[in-house]
Design a protein that fits this description.
alpha+beta, Umud Fragment, subunit A, 7-stranded antiparallel β-sheet, 26% strand, elongated
Length: 148
């Protein structure tokens, strides 16, 4: 084997190792954030326009434990409603009735009425703490490219 082939092979192995390390670091960081913020969804990308003008597609939201939810909070919940997509939804709490929440997107053009199904508190995964513009676009790109 020539020196240039050996050098190229070592470079490829190093690149693969660095990529694996980056993925491992991202995974560990996500799990540490989940533990520290006491939520299974510490960072989430906004994927729709239902929360405009508050949240935009491509925003990255940081969530905390949903232990203390009040009317007006923005929450991330697991949809268990036949007329909603089977995915996590980020909407505002507009009413609390015991252990049930009524939620609604802020965008009155796409969400003129409250969500059709009440949300049990146990389906709430997190409460939005902050939104960081544009940092969620990599996830949107992955969703678009790989249809996930």
């Amino acid at each position: 084997m020539s020196v240039s082939i050996m050098h190229a092979a070592k470079r490829v192995v190093r690149e693969i190792g660095e990529l694996a390390l980056a993925f491992l670091l991202a995974f560990v960081t996500y799990r540490v954030l989940a533990y520290v913020l006491a939520t299974p969804v510490p960072i989430v990308s906004v994927t729709s326009s239902s929360m405009l003008p508050t949240l935009h597609p491509g925003d990255l939201v940081v969530a905390v434990s949903p232990s203390e939810i009040e009317e007006g909070d923005i929450v991330i919940y697991e949809a268990h409603c036949a007329v909603l997509p089977r995915e996590d939804i980020i909407h505002r709490v507009i009413e609390i009735n015991g252990t049930m929440l009524t939620t609604k997107g802020d965008n009155n053009l796409t969400n003129p009425v409250p969500d059709p199904c009440p949300v049990p508190l146990e389906y709430v995964k997190g409460k939005v703490l902050i939104a960081i513009p544009l940092l969620g676009y990599p996830r949107l790109a992955i969703n678009y490219l790989f249809n996930v």
